UniProtKB/TrEMBL annotation:
Protein family per UniProt: Belongs to the ABC transporter superfamily.
Keyword Transferase: no
Residues forming coiled coils: none
Organism: Alloyangia pacifica
Keywords assigned by UniProt, alphabetized: ATP-binding, Cell inner membrane, Cell membrane, Membrane, Nucleotide-binding, Translocase, Transport
Pfam families cross-referenced by the UniProt entry: ABC_tran (PF00005)
Name recorded for this polypeptide: Taurine transport system ATP-binding protein
Keyword Membrane among UniProt keywords: yes
Length: 271
């Protein structure tokens, strides 16, 4: 049985003062191998918590994650994470960063070397192998992070705002790279973003989450990721359904944020 199954997931954080936060409530979702899911939602709706549970960094209070027929019980190389920034090893050069996983798994240069060089080529870093991480721009560092994740050959790639710190032009190039890697590798990808446009461009499936408790509000199946894998992303944005869907989702998130503001104002007035 291949694929990722998120089953009735709930997560409650108990705080030291005796109160608790219901970060996720009864979240269920099935992803087939090779599907690309983007996740949107107001701050605090449980996106990072969801990703951390799939990664195995957190154990849920209820529910479970099944990957390829096995229950997830902790971190493993089959599930790779790409963080927003700052997760590279500053003291290693680019190639050593990318080959870190295979080396830690006890593999030898002759077994992983060709694949590492291939990945560096694919992400456009062929001429930067010997550079130190601090010599690279933010966009290039995220290319290293992607290649390092792929070098472990995970089944699932988890990305929490991976492009959030990049300038607009670099971000657009990286969005194309994510689509290219998705098509070439057939990996299952879950990508969290704050950008509605990015979620539309990259999500073959798109989840809008709602807060308090964190839950699935709406799910879309979209044609744009497939279109974008073969052409300029700016052309994709001109697709007539693109603007319509963007407006619909923006309205949805706007309403949720208004409601959150309203609630906190009421709470403030009551105290
Ligand atoms: N370790 C933690 N302890 C207590 N509360 C947490 C913890 N992690 C997250 N939360 C709370 O859970 C909710 C969801 O957080 P998070 O998953 O980070 O949301 P998002 O990534 O969508 O912004 C928030 O209310 C947050 O404050
Ligand atoms: Mg988050």
């Amino acid at each position: 049985m291949s694929g990722l199954s998120i089953q009735n997931l709930s997560m409650r954080f108990d705080l030291p003062n005796g109160s608790s936060v219901q970060a996720l409530k009864d979240v269920s979702l099935d992803l087939a191998q090779g599907e690309l899911l983007s996740v949107l939602g107001p701050s605090g709706c449980g996106k990072t918590t969801l990703l951390n549970i799939v990664a195995g960094f957190l154990a849920p209070t209820d529910g479970k994650i099944i990957l390829n027929g096995h229950e997830v019980r902790g971190p493993a190389a089959e599930r790779g994470m790409v963080f927003q920034q700052g997760a590279l090893f500053e003291w290693m050069n680019v190639r050593d960063n990318v080959s870190f996983g295979p080396r830690m798994a006890g593999k030898r240069e002759k077994d992983y070397g060709a694949n590492v060089d291939h990945l560096l080529e694919v992400v456009g870093l062929r001429d930067f192998k010997e550079k130190a991480v601090y010599e690279l721009s933010g966009g290039m560092q995220q290319r290293v992070a992607l290649a390092r994740c792929l070098a472990n050959d995970p089944d699932v790639i988890l990305m929490d705002e991976p492009l959030g710190a990049l300038d607009a032009l670099t971000r657009e190039k990286m969005q194309s790279l994510v689509l290219k890697l998705w098509k070439e590798t057939g990996k299952t990808i879950i990508l969290i973003t704050h950008s509605v446009e990015e979620a539309l461009l990259l999500g073959e499936r798109l989840l809008v989450m709602a807060p308090r408790p964190g839950r699935i509000h709406r799910e879309y199946r979209l044609p744009f990721a497939d279109l974008g894998a073969g052409q300029d992303l700016r052309a994709v944005k001109k697709h007539p359904d693109f603007a319509t869907t963007r407006e619909e989702i923006l309205g949805m998130i706007w309403d949720m944020e208004e409601e959150i503001m309203g609630r906190s104002e009421t709470a403030g007035a009551a105290s």
